[in-house]
């Protein structure tokens, strides 16, 4: 019996997007995958847009690495031909601040039959996308939108081809968690089935409420580790030192107040999981297991790229205002990182 392989488009050809692509392509019956890449700069000479990317992956643990077979994946750059069929499955792996500009050219190809999976850092992107789609297509034509978190150690080696190194710092397999509430008698979206069928991804679904908790715990780690490592130019493990403790405590204290009030607003009776002590323990755990890593925000600052600070600490500040909680330290941290972005750009 012939099994129809689904079409999956992946928006974003960075380390996460190409890693997801490689994992899906490595299955016994891979979907038809297309990488949607950034369109050429219209203000300068038109560069040659690659028709495909060859992705190479070295993976394993710190003591045992192997090279996987390479995969060549077709690419597509907006604007898309108006005659092309709608997108049925879309995985979004762009940086948070790049999402809306990258999605806008794709809006004519989205419908209620489209499933979109967001695999990104930060919070607030899905709400922005939902508002944008509603303003263009109406509230009755929204795609099915899912969110997930990627817990894999991946870095991209600068190369003309896509060279990835996948090393799990805890010497155990990484995983992907996707928030999804199964409904009896209903079929899971194709994009979800595809990820669950890729062993290297270690993908699993968790109920929506539990996923929200995972998102918040990941956010607090990102809100401490990312900006402080970027501001002080240090690796993650340096934040375990006593000289950073006061700043860590103030950031975490503000986040704790926001999270606990969010828990009350959401009807969550277990808000004690968001005490300052509990959140700090989680931050220190992540800083320990990723001690030798360079945070993505430090890497962005060093490469003079825009950071995701507005979707991390910025989200905390915004959500705090909505709940009547002032978060001056998180606001200060956000402004310091944005100032650092500007200084780095001016120096290049």
TrEMBL record:
Q: Which domain of life is it from?
A: Eukaryota
The record's listing under Gene3D superfamilies reads: N-(1-d-carboxylethyl)-l-norvaline Dehydrogenase, domain 2 (1.10.1040.10), NAD(P)-binding Rossmann-like Domain (3.40.50.720)
Keyword annotations from UniProtKB, A to Z: NADP, Oxidoreductase
SUPFAM superfamilies assigned: 6-phosphogluconate dehydrogenase C-terminal domain-like, NAD(P)-binding Rossmann-fold domains
Q: Which GO terms describe its cellular component?
A: mitochondrion
Which reaction does this enzyme catalyse, per its entry? (R)-pantoate + NADP(+) = 2-dehydropantoate + NADPH + H(+)
Q: Name one GO biological process term.
A: pantothenate biosynthetic process
The molecular function GO annotations come to:
2-dehydropantoate 2-reductase activity; NADP binding
Residues forming the Ketopantoate reductase C-terminal domain are 211-341
Q: What is its EC number?
A: 1.1.1.169
Query: Can you give the residue ranges of the Ketopantoate reductase N-terminal domain?
Result: 8-158
What would be one Pfam family of this protein? ApbA
Give the first-level EC class, as a single word.
Answer: oxidoreductase
* Family under the similarity heading: Belongs to the ketopantoate reductase family.
Q: What does this protein do?
A: Catalyzes the NADPH-dependent reduction of ketopantoate into pantoic acid.
Q: What is this protein called?
A: 2-dehydropantoate 2-reductase
Q: What organism does this protein naturally occur in? A: Ascodesmis nigricans
